[in-house]
């Protein structure tokens, strides 16, 4: 059999007798390294994994694939992809504005892009046309005036005055709280030289009242009142004191200001730091209003209670502003205030008398002050004596109950009469130098069960009790408060 090779030579048989290039190398002549390279080159490291599944070559290809994947994973730089947030879809006026300025394919039925430029049919305007109506929102500031607010918003002077007068007929303007939002609509005006007329106005004048103004067909403003139903059942909150009375009450929903009032009231009966434990429970009742529209308001503290198991404190705020316990008694503690503005010229104790010139017990305080300075009652009391008293000169003595009395000497003029009841801070006379005195000053004495005590270090505790109609009204209020369930429902 003759075959034609690439050189155009014919050879007999299936092999060519001619060989070109390097002489063939036999296996016996190869080293071990060359043998290893030859064997590795003969192996197919990346066979088709879609064929001969399960064969030795297939498993070898799978191992190669897994190795490459492991190498790629180990060399991964660790770059975290950044998520791009999609823009929210446009709707309403925003969609119309964007669509009017955009160009979309006409094949999709779009009509944008056809009015992007003016043509010969467009006539220029002498001025920009105004909107037929303008909707505004204004906020009433601290110390602001409703009339001035409306004028700043663009309302004419006459309309602003008329609107303020109509609102004043429904609610005093001073009662409108700062921060109130006022919605208004201004109508079309005949020219730019005049203010827009007020068409509508609406706001919440009180927690239980909405007011609205609307211009009628005749051109006048008409006021409409919308009364809002309000449930004024007080809010009662109870809970354990735990590790902190303040934090526990705040966590239960009591406003911070009310918690401060509660602690101050309870502290007048119980030592908060040492006598109140974690297992004690607090009981708080607050003024509370719930409107039918969903809003709520929390007011002053009405009831302060503390249950310690062995002892229960229940205090109620009465009409005089003081805290009374559930039995109708009020206890007041504290120190006496200075009865006159001045400086202490002589203290309590033994001293050399400035006139008699020998050591003598000084049973009060001398307070130097200008002639005619007003003298005030240190605490509530009843005038027991008012007149001339030997060395004291013009002298006033007040009885405060519980064996406590106070005296005020050397007055230039007395302003009270015997038997008169005076309140703390009330003027009872004026500084002078009557009696045994070397200059204008006040001599102030305090007695406890007839014995003189130092006025500056004396602490007092007075107990008052209600009676008659006041006690019955107080008991009714206590019963009503204690009948409220926690949550105010």
Give a nutshell description of this structure.
It is built from 9 helices and 27 strands. The chain is α+β, with helices and mostly antiparallel strands and 489 residues long.
How would you describe what is shown here?
There is one protein chain. By secondary structure, the chain is of the alpha+beta class. Among the domains are: 134-227, Nuclear Transport Factor 2, Chain: A, CATH 3.10.450.350; 235-327, Nuclear Transport Factor 2, Chain: A; 343-463, Glucose Permease (Domain IIA), CATH 2.70.70. Helices cover 20% and strands 33% of the residues. The protein contains 9 helices and 27 strands. It has helices spanning 32-42, 56-74, 93-101, 146-152, 157-170, 245-251, 256-267, 272-275, 468-482; strands at residues 2-4, 10-12, 134-139, 181-186, 198-206, 209-215, 221-227, 230-231, 235-240, 281-291, 296-307, 312-317, 323-325, 329-335, 343-346, 349-352, 359-362, 364-368, 374-376, 381-389, 393-401, 404-414, 421-422, 427-431, 441-448, 451-453, 459-465. The strands form 6 sheets. Strands 15, 18, 19, 20, 21, 22, 23, 24, 25 and 26 form a 10-stranded antiparallel β-sheet that branches. It is extended. Mean pLDDT is 81; it is low at 1-23.
């Amino acid at each position: 059999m003759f075959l034609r090779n690439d050189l155009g030579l014919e050879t007999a048989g299936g092999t060519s007798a001619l060989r070109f290039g390097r002489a063939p190398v036999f296996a016996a002549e190869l080293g071990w390294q060359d043998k290893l390279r030859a064997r590795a080159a003969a192996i197919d490291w990346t066979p088709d994994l879609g064929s001969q599944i399960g064969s030795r070559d297939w498993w070898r290809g799978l191992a190669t694939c897994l190795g490459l994947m492991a190498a790629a994973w180990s060399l991964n730089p660790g770059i975290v992809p950044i998520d791009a947030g999609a823009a929210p879809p446009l709707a309403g006026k925003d969609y119309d504005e964007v669509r009017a300025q955009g160009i979309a394919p006409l094949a999709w039925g779009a009509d944008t892009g056809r009015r992007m430029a003016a043509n010969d049919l467009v006539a220029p305007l002498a001025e920009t046309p105004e909107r037929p109506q303008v909707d505004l929102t204004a906020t009433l500031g601290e110390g602001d005036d409703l009339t001035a607010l409306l004028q700043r918003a663009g309302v004419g002077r006459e309309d602003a005055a008329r609107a303020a007068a109509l609102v004043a007929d429904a609610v005093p303007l001073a009662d409108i709280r700062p921060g109130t939002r006022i919605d208004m609509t201004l109508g079309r005006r005949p020219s730019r030289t005049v203010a827009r007329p007020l068409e509508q106005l609406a706001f919440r004048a009180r927690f239980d009242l909405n007011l609205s103004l609307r211009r009628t067909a005749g051109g006048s403003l008409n006021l409409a009142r919308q009364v809002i139903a309000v449930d004024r059942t007080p809010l009662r909150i109870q809970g354990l004191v735990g590790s902190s009375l303040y934090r526990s009450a705040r966590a239960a929903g009591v406003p911070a200001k009310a918690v401060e009032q509660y602690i101050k009231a309870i502290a007048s009966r119980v030592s908060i730091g040492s006598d109140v434990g974690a297992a004690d429970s607090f009981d708080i009742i607050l003024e509370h209003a719930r409107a039918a529209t969903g809003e709520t308001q929390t007011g002053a503290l009405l009831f302060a209670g503390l249950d310690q198991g062995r002892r229960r404190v229940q205090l109620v705020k009465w009409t005089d502003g003081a805290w009374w316990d559930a039995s109708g008694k009020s206890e007041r503690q504290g120190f006496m205030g200075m009865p006159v503005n001045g400086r202490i010229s002589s203290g309590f104790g033994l001293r050399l008398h400035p006139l008699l010139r020998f050591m003598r017990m000084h049973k009060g305080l001398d307070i130097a002050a200008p002639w005619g300075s007003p003298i005030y009652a240190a605490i509530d009391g009843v005038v027991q004596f008012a007149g001339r008293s030997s060395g004291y000169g013009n002298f006033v003595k007040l009885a405060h109950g519980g064996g406590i009395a106070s005296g005020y000497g050397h007055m230039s003029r007395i302003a009270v009469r015997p038997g008169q009841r005076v309140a703390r801070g009330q003027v009872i006379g004026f500084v002078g130098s009557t009696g045994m005195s070397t200059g204008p000053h006040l001599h102030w004495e305090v007695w406890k069960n007839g014995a003189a005590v130092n006025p500056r270090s004396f602490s007092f505790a007075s107990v008052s009790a209600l009676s008659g109609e006041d006690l019955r009204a107080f008991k009714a209020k206590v019963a009503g408060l204690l009948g409220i369930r926690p949550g105010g429902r």
